[in-house]
User: Which sequence fits this backbone?
């Protein structure tokens, strides 16, 4: 049960529909006595002010999957539920559309709905056996080539056991949530979003006998860059850090979760899956 008294709205400023809806939604919620603030999704979580979010009960994301990922990055530290509203081209994570937004909100305001807790990834970049940076991902962690004319060589270990060396455009590890994002376009399987499993997917691999794999939820994956060519690290489509030969990215399931506010039953994911794949 959600108690909604304080709400944040994050919208895509490049979408006129999202910006207009953010104003209309703010007016509607304020008329009901709800404390509301709104912010553009172009700001990173580090640039947003944290004070307005203190004590927030709900964060509403208006846009496509990119907007929702940015909202999630902001909500995760405080475990604020995110309500996703489809206004973009890709909306696998969307719960509502503009047509059913207000009825869905009324359900939540009346104490209905449920919390959908999604698995996150914890990634550590290691260089010369020392930790350089730590990241949290909702969708995926990707090691990919930085030089467009050369493939990348990546050694893969699972639970400290060597698996293979991929010669590919890249290698990614995704959550079940991320299985419908980059992992899907790279040939990975669609995984039930309730699963806590990890998915290992090579991107455009050359002559490999090891395809995409679904791994146990407690698996630890290590991706080590063998190639002297430029490589990059991306986390949910962000960061894009340059990697060096010998750099190692360690990935496991995070002890944190991302919570989404839901109105529809879980079966709605499967009911709309084919339609979303067809972009209908």
Assistant:
């Amino acid at each position: 049960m959600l108690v909604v008294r304080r709400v944040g709205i994050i919208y895509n400023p490049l979408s006129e529909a999202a910006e207009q809806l953010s104003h209309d939604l703010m007016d509607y919620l304020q008329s009901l006595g709800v404390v509301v603030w709104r912010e553009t999704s172009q700001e990173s979580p580090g640039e947003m002010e944290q004070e307005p979010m203190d004590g927030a009960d709900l964060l509403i994301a208006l846009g496509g999957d990119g907007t929702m990922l940015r909202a999630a990055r902001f909500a995760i530290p405080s475990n604020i539920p995110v309500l996703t509203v489809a206004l973009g081209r890709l909306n696998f994570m969307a719960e509502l559309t503009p047509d059913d937004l207000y009825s869905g909100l009324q359900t939540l305001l009346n104490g209905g709905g449920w919390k959908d807790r999604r698995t996150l990834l914890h990634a550590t970049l290691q260089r010369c056996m020392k930790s350089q940076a730590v990241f949290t991902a909702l969708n995926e962690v990707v090691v990919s080539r930085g030089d467009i004319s050369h493939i990348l060589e990546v050694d893969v270990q699972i639970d400290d056991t060597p698996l293979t060396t991929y010669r590919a455009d890249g290698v990614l590890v995704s959550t079940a949530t991320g299985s419908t994002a980059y992992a899907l376009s790279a040939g990975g399987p669609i995984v039930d979003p309730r699963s806590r499993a990890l998915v290992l997917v090579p991107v455009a691999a050359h002559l490999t006998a090891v395809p995409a794999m679904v791994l146990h939820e407690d698996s630890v994956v290590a991706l080590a860059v063998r190639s002297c060519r430029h490589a990059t690290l991306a986390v949910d489509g962000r960061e894009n850090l340059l990697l060096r030969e010998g750099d190692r990215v360690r990935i496991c399931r995070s002890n944190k979760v991302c919570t989404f506010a839901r109105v529809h039953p879980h079966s709605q994911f499967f009911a709309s899956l084919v339609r979303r794949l067809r972009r209908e």
Notes: The two ends are 32 Å apart (CA to CA). Residues 120-256 form a domain with the Tumour Suppressor Smad4 fold (CATH 2.60.200.30).
